[in-house]
Amino acid sequence: MNGSVAGGGGGFSEEIINLTRRSSGLGFNIVGGTDQQYISNDSSIYVSRIKKDGAAYLDGRLQEGDKILSVNGRDLKDLRHKDAVELFRNAGCDVSLKIQRRLQPQNGPVGHRGDGESGGLPLAAILVPGLALAATAVWILLRYRQRM
């Protein structure tokens, strides 16, 4: 298994994500640090951007907005931004990230996937056959009236 999920409590989840560095790097940008707080009164390091076709993008688990708690077991707490960047650059080929993610509230019916899809049939799958049936019924009715 390439990662594990643990309950972080308080509406957060924590996950270990193992990435293999590519020639272009790990494939994401970071913000934050003691000298460049991304969130007021929070000097944590956050993922600001996932680069398309990079290691993180291809892995698919790291998300923009994730808080990176540690790199290869090294805590990122109380680091300046440039020191965090340097830590990532020197992390080696196989990099283990411990991340924290805010859990999304589940609003909606049971089974709602939260990705903009209801899980049922698309509206067009119902409307198109319905309209075709209505048009056919009107055509039959008009043909029947012409014969009278």
TrEMBL record:
One GO term describing the cellular component: cell junction
Cited PROSITE patterns: PDZ (PS50106)
Keyword vocabulary terms for this entry: Membrane, Mitochondrion, Mitochondrion outer membrane, Transmembrane, Transmembrane helix
UniProt domain PDZ: residue ranges: 16-103
Subcellular location: Mitochondrion outer membrane
Transmembrane segments: 121-142
Protein's UniProt keywords contain Transferase: no
GO biological-process terms attached to the record: cell-cell adhesion; establishment or maintenance of epithelial cell apical/basal polarity; negative regulation of endothelial cell migration; negative regulation of endothelial cell proliferation; negative regulation of ERK1 and ERK2 cascade; negative regulation of sprouting angiogenesis; receptor clustering; receptor localization to synapse
GO molecular function annotation: protein kinase binding
Subunit structure: Binds (via the PDZ domain) to isoform 2A of SYNJ2 (via the unique motif in the C-terminus). Interacts (via C-terminus) with RALBP1. Interacts (via PDZ domain) with ACVR2A (via C-terminus) and ACVR2B (via C-terminus). Forms a ternary complex with ACVR2A and RALBP1. Interacts with MAPK12. Interacts with DLL1; enhances DLL1 protein stability, and promotes notch signaling in endothelial cells.
Protein name in the entry: Synaptojanin-2-binding protein
UniProt source species: Strigops habroptila
Gene from which the chain derives: SYNJ2BP
